[in-house]
Amino acid sequence: MMMRQAKHGRADEDGSRGNRKSVRLHARTLVLAAIALGTAALSGGTADEAVEALWKFVSPQGLLYDFLGDVPTPKDCAENRPNAMGYWCPIENGPMFTGPFLQAMALRAKRTRDPEDARRCRVLAEGLLLLASVSDEPGFVARGVGTDGKCHFPIGGPDQTVPWFLGLDAYLHSGLCDAALKARIVAKLKEVGEALAAADWRPPMEAPFKGEKAGPLYKGSLPFRAATQYLFCLRALADATGEEKWKAAYRRTLGLRFPRPEAGGLTYLQICELGCGHDQEVKKSFKVAPNGLWIYVGCAQGCLATLAEREEDAAVAQKLRTGLARSADYAHSSMALYKGYPNVAERPFKYANWRAGWNWWPQKTLAEVRAVSSNTNRNRKVLGRRKDVERKTMTAPLSAAAICAYAGKYREDVLAALSHYDYSTIALAEFYAAPLAYELVNRKEQQESKEGKVSK
């Protein structure tokens, strides 16, 4: 069942909206009917629709914008507007979203063998390479770039650096990049990895915060997230460079005790085995599900899935797979939130008016950065509530779908969620999780088809 759609127009511009809605509802009815019979087949149309809608969020440099709106100028970046971390503007989460999207596109390109999909993979890879090339600070990975293609905000962090590794690692192992690009990726991964290792795995900051560093990515306050991302970075560097020191560090770290007392003396491997729900037990003030699932897609579950796929020790691999399954079990119930998404766009998207919607003042200290970037520092009358709606009924359920798909679980529920959305109505690029989930489920189905079984 193919419903490949080209670029979408605005849903309210012409009479095509009703036809598109009818086709989408018909497709969803067929999917759900097949699910009821236990014979659900994947629809390429759902994935095509999501990818085409999402490609509108890709910047000229090959990076996913958070949303479509004013891109910060060199003056904005120099003044740290809206804040030094770029929170609340279109270039807040470039690597965090582009990394797993590149993983999805690499899986897609291998499946479709479409030259356009392969070209898009290269565009995204070049974007990620750019983010680690715009600063003189060793190991710095920018969140995004402004209107001139190079200006950026001075603070990155583990939540950007790890998905940067994830995307380039996936592309490197996809067989899609030529020798020259492969060499560039390996060199950049090694450059960033060496710099981070020399700085105790603490991502650096630029002026006016030069000398400051984010917390070590191996001991974050969310142990499952920290353990999976640190182990993954070590393994990715080992596989990319072939250097034994990274592989030895990976093996050694598996058996090390996580260096925070609240982890209860558990080793990195034991924490990986517990799944993301463990972070809720450790840090009760943080709501992992459903609100926080979006930070576990490319920063934890994707990392753990890669580790499980490449692990040579069968006993260790089984523990990693157990962690994947437990994360899926924990996230599963949040997938049902897709039923609340209205499939009607907000035009214009009020939240895009970040210049008027957030108070600003100069920031000379990290305390001032935290204050000006606080989520409470906003004018709701200007920004509206659409982002809150999408976070609850789109981001959370699709993140849950991707987490379940990485584990190869709850296939039918994942398909039902993916078939619900009119992707042309979504204002936040966080639906990159949809094509990712689709490709992961598709890959799992192909593997199981060869083995003569289908997962539920």
Brief summary:
The chain is an all-alpha fold and 456 residues long. The chain has 19 helices and no strands. Helix 5 runs antiparallel to helix 6 and helix 13 (314-332) runs antiparallel to helix 17 (386-407).
How would you explain this protein's 3D organization?
The chain is mostly helical and 456 residues long. The chain has one domain: Glycosyltransferase, CATH 1.50.10. 55% of the residues lie in helices and 0% in strands. It contains 19 helices and no strands. The protein has helices at 16-37, 44-55, 74-79, 94-112, 115-131, 158-172, 179-198, 223-241, 244-254, 268-274, 277-282, 297-310, 314-332, 354-357, 366-372, 380-383, 386-407, 411-418, 433-451. Helix 6 (158-172) packs parallel to helix 8 and helix 12 (297-310) runs parallel beside helix 17. The protein is globular, with a radius of gyration of 21 Å.
